[in-house]
Input
Amino acid sequence: MEITLLLALILTIGFIIAKAGQTVRLPSVTGFIAAGILLGPSGLNIITAEATSNQLRHFTQIALMLIAFGIGEHLELKRLKITAKTVLSICFTDTAAALFLVAGGIFLVTWATGTGGLGWHAKDYLVLGLILGTVSIATAPGTILFITRECRAVGPMTTTLLQVVAVNNGLAIIFFGAALVLARQVVGAEQAVLGIIIIILAKISFSLLLGVATGLVIDFIIHRLVDRGEMLTAGLALLLLSGEMARFLKLSPLLVGIAIGFTIVNRDRRDVRLFRTLNAFEPPIYVLFFTLAGAHLDFTALKVAGWLGFTYFLLRFIGKVTGVYFGGGLAGAPLLVRKHLGVALVPQAGVAIGLVFLINGDPSLNLYATILTPTVLVGVLFAELVGPACTKYSLECSGEAVVDNGKSSWSEPRQEKTFPFEEIRDVELVPWSWEKLRPASIPQGAVIFGVSHKRTVSGLARMATLLAHHFKAQPVAVRIDLTKNVSPEYVQVSELFDLAAQETRSLGYILHTSEIRAESIAKGFLAAAKEKGAATILLGYPFQRTEHNFNRIVEEIAAAAPCPIAIMRFTGILHTERILAPLINSADLDVIGDTLCALAHVGKHNITLLRLLSADVSEQEIAAHEKKLFNWAAGRNLPFVNCIATRAEARLETILKQAPSHDLLIMAVSEGAGIKKMLLGSLADDVAGNCQRPMLMVHRPRL
Output
C-alpha cells in the first residue's frame, strides 16, 4: 500500500475508534491502540511488519522525542524541591516492590513448571526473573503524558506522577544494565563487570550532557524568536537532530529528550512557548505513534507465553500499587496520591520493548530471549489495553482531571505574537516635584553609589537618596581611582560630585563623597561599604558594550558584600510613579521589599506586584498567590498596590507586555554564579536587555 494512503488510513481509523471509545469514557489512547490491533498483523494486516519496522518507524522516533521533551517540562527544580522526598520515596519503594515481586514470582513459577526445559538450572530461572523484574520497573511515558494532557489534569498528583515516570524509566535503564551484567556472567560471556558498569554509567551521563547542551542551544534561539512557526521549525529541528545524534552514538534518546525539557523549564527566564507550540503539532503524531504501538502487539505471543505474560502483568500491577502506597506513606504523601498514583503507573510499552530488544541483539543471551520476548510482549499487551483506562480513572478519582463528557483537548490555544522592544539609549531625569525629604538627625550607615558617567550620576544620586531616606542613612558618592585604567570618557571627579550633590540637595539631603584608591573596582566598593557601614550598594548599568566585565565586577562584589546590591539601568525618562515588580517566587519579595518601600513611602506611587506562575496552575492556586501578595503589601503598609498572579508560558514575554504601562521595573536577581548561572540564566538580565523602561535589579547579599 502507498505510504500516503496508509498514513491517511491510520489517522482516520485511529480517530474514529478513539471517538467511539470516548463515548464510554475510555481514553483516546485505548482507541488508538485498538485501531492498531485491528489494522496490524494480528488483525487485517493492513499495517504490515515491514511498514512498522521500516516505512513508519520515523514517526515513532519523532513521537518518542516529543514525549521525552514533554516529560522534562515537569521536572522543574522549584517543584522538585517540594516533591523530592515523595518522588524519591515512591520511586525506590515502587522499584523495589515491582522488582522483587516480579523477579521472585517469575522465578518460582518458571522453576516449578520447568518452563525453560531440561537445560535450565535454578540460576537461569533466577536470571530470567531478575531481567523481567528490571523491565517491570519501566512505565509508558507517552501514554501517561498523553492522558494527563487529554484530561487537562493539574495538581499535586499529576505533577508527582510525571516526575515519578521520568525517574522510574531512568532507574529501569540502570537496573536493566546491571541485570544484563549478571546474565552475561551466568552464561559465561567473558566481559569485565566493572567495564560494563562504566559503559552503562557513561552512556547515561553523556545522554544527559547532550540533552543539557541541546536545551541551552534551543533556549538561546527560541527566546529570540517571536513567530510561533519559526519556534516550531527551529525547536523541532534541534530536538530531532539531538535524537538522531543519540541513536548514532548509541545513547538514550529518552534521557536526551527529558534533559532538554528539564534544561529549558529550569532556565531563569522559563520560556515554555516551545512546549505549547509543539502541543499544536503533536496530535496527529500521537495518533500515528499509538496506532503503530497497537500494530506491534502480537497476539501470537499469547500462544507462546500467554500465561507467563499475564503472571508478569499481574505481579507488576501489584508491585506498582503496593510500592507507591507504602512509599507515599513513608514520605507523608497525601492519601489520594498513595491510593491512586500506583494504578496510574500501569501502562507499559516502548521503553520495556526497547530493553527487551537489546537482549535479542545479544547472541550470548539467546537462551533467555526465547522466553523473555513473548513474555514482555504479552505483558505489554495487557498493560496497554488496561493501563490507559487505569491512568484516566486515577486522575479522575484524584479530582485533578477535567471530565468533558467525551470531548478531548490535545493541545492548548495559540497566543498572539508579541514583539521585543528596541533599546533606547537617551536618559532624561524628571525634576523632583514632591516636597523635600527630612534626613534623620542621627544617620545610621550609608547608601553608597558609584560615579563614573555624566549621564547616570544624577539618576543614581536620586535613587541613592531615596534608599538612604528609607534606611535613615546618608547618601555617599564613591569614586574608585584606578590609575592604571583611565576610561576614554573620564570626567573630572569634582564635576561628577557636583552633579550628584545638586540632585541630592533637590531632595533635601546633603551628599557625602569618598574617593578610594584600590586594585580593582570591586575591591574599592567593598572597602567603601565596610568603612561607611553600607545598607545598600548602588551601581549604574554600563552604556558601553562592557556587560561581561560589569557582570564580573557585580559577581565579585556580591560574593563578599555585607549588604544588598542594586543595579540601576537607565533608558528613556526616569519616572518612579508607576512601578512594576515581576516576581518568580515569594523569596523575591524579601529581596526587593526595602527598595519598594523606599519609593512607595515618598509621594504617591502605584505598584504592581506581578507573580509569574507556571502555565498549568489552577485558578485556586492563582487566587491563593494573589492573596499572599495582598497580605505582604498590607504587612509592609504599602498603599496603591495592584497584586496580580498570572500564568506565564514565557516569563520574559509576559514582563515585556506589562512594561509599557509602567515607568520603572524592580526585580530580584536570582542567586548563582559560574556554571549555575550559565545553565539557569538570569531573567533580570534578559529583561534588562530587552525592555525600554528604566530598571532596578537587586542582588541579595550572600554572606
About this structure: The CA atoms of residues 75 and 271 lie 15 Å apart. The two ends are 70 Å apart (CA to CA). The first helix runs from residue 3 to 22. The first strand starts at residue 427 and ends at 429.
